[in-house]
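2024-03-11 09:14:02 INFO receiving multi-entity request
2024-03-11 09:14:02 INFO entity count = two
2024-03-11 09:14:03 INFO echoing inputs for audit
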Amino acid sequence: MIELYYRMLKHDPDGVLVKDTGLMPSGSYVIQFLELIQGLFDGITSTATRVTGAEGIIVRPNEDMYRFGRVGAAALDDSFGVVVGTNAGTTAEDNENYALDTKILHSAVGAAGEMNYRDVTFVAPRVVGPNVDFDITRAFINETGVTITVKEIGIIANNNFDTQYFLLLRDVVTDEPVDDAETLTVIYVLRTTV
Amino acid sequence: MKKDNKSHGVQLLLRCIVRDPDGKIITDTGRKPAKSFVIQFLEFLYYMFKYDANETATATDGTEDGFYYQIAEAYRDLRVDAGVSVATYGVVVGTGDTAETNADYALDTQIAEGAGAGQLTHGSTTVGDPAVVGANVDLEVRRAFINASGNTITVKEAGIYTMAIETYFHCIVRDVLAAEIDVPDKCSLSVIYTLRTTV
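2024-03-11 09:21:47 INFO inference complete, emitting structure
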């Protein structure tokens, strides 16, 4: 089994940790994840539902590998990588979710309702006690002047062959209010244990 | 569809079916939870997610070999769909029962392709389409083996090997079976792995 956990940290403007959820079980691989794996296992063109709701190509066999399954988004880029949202429509998790309900957009100037997306970072798979853990992390800074409440998180993969985006994971989380000038850090942990 | 059978991850299930030469089922283990993604699978996800370099991992021969090729065509990475008589990748079986570890990079004692003593002929490995099945999404990977050796062969382990750039082979799954399975002469063994997600 590839277990999945998420952890959310919140730091005040001085870098003081003010909240740590600890590792929380995540239930959230959605069908696009297995469609990506299928395309690789079988060496075929594999299609999946994009974040827009339209069908797109998640793996195209004759294009270079680096174009597919990309999660390592740079700072300022809210189109893929770890993303957060407000779940304004209170959409429940579902195997066939293809987007966050209401993704919070990036802003470097504190636009209302938006957060400053930092880069996605990884900790390579390594043996941790009886497990192998692989961490995917991204920080989000609230510079709006008012509190933003995060209610959903996820991971979007990018196909940069024809610039399409696919949701791989989505979690509805306990409301997490992020006050002005606070930083929310979301950490996904993929874990295997034989 | 919202699920009620909550899990938190990609489950891996393993089913083994033995049939006599007439196709009659002799043994069917049913789908049993498998424990056995090994470190190489998460390494591939890591390399793909960060997509910034060619990367290596421990291959089935114990050497560090190419695993993720960023500038190779996508069909040349992580292939599992091995053809008939190809035992270097796809679903594989063996006779070893050394306990699984996170760092396993090969079966303990893989059964070779052939009709000689201790060998099985390998059918093709097929990969199904991910589909919503009840509360889950399932992706099946399966392979049939035929025993033409003249004697019973006892299978104790199974796994999945991948192929990169038609050259390098890596183990991403290894399971010691809960109970060994006898495959009598002229009988077939089907091994079915199911990757299952449930939100």
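2024-03-11 09:21:48 INFO post-check: Chain A has one domain: 2-28+71-155+168-192.
2024-03-11 09:21:48 INFO post-check: The first strand of chain A starts at residue 2 and ends at 11.
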